[in-house]
Every structure is written in C-alpha cells, then in structure tokens.
Amino acid sequence: MPRIELGLEEIEYEDTGGSGPPVVFLHGLAMNSSVWRKVIPRLQDHYRCLSPSLAGRRSPDSRAA
C-alpha cells in the first residue's frame, strides 16, 4: 500500500488510479480503509478511488516495512 508523509506522520492509502473524477473514502474512529473493500471495486472503473487509513490504522493486509 503506498504511503504519503504529512508532517511528522506517514499515512497509508489505496489509490485505484484511473482517469475518472477522484472520490475520497474516509473511515470512522477505530476503523481503517478496509471498510470500503466492497464499495471501491464497484466504482473504480468510473472514478479514481482514494482511501486513506488515518491515525495510524493500517489495513489488515499491510506489512511492516
């Protein structure tokens, strides 16, 4: 999963790429971007889907670097 550095924090995010309009999927407290795992595949053909895992909450499939 790609990462972006924002100040002192590094955030992982999923980016489907594509040329459609960008849509950002945010999650709630005590969750991560995996809550969108069934929604993003349905939209990624028409939109560029971006889904950050905020506050250090990594997706279950993430591996330590």
Structural class of the secondary elements?
Answer: mainly beta
Record field, number of beta strands: 4
Content of β-strand: 25-35%
Mean pLDDT: 82
**Biggest sheet record:** 4 strands, mixed
Give the fraction of residues assigned to helices: under 10%
Number of domains: 1
Distance between the termini: 11 Å
Query: In order across it, which strands form the biggest sheet?
Result: 1-2-4-3
- Say what oligomer this is: single chain
Rg, Å, rounded:
12 Å
In short:
The chain is mainly beta and 65 residues long.
What are the main properties of this structure?
65 residues; mainly beta; four-stranded mixed sheet; 4 strands
How are the SSEs ordered, and which strands pair?
Elements: E1 3-6, E2 9-15, E3 22-24, H1 40-43, E4 48-53
Parallel strand pairs: 3-4
Antiparallel strand pairs: 1-2, 2-4
Task: Report on this structure.
With 65 residues, the chain is mainly β. It has one domain. Helices cover 6% and strands 31% of the residues. The chain contains one helix and four strands. It has a four-stranded mixed sheet, with no helix packed on it. The longest helix is centred in the middle third of the chain and has 4 residues. The model has no long low-confidence stretch (mean pLDDT 82).
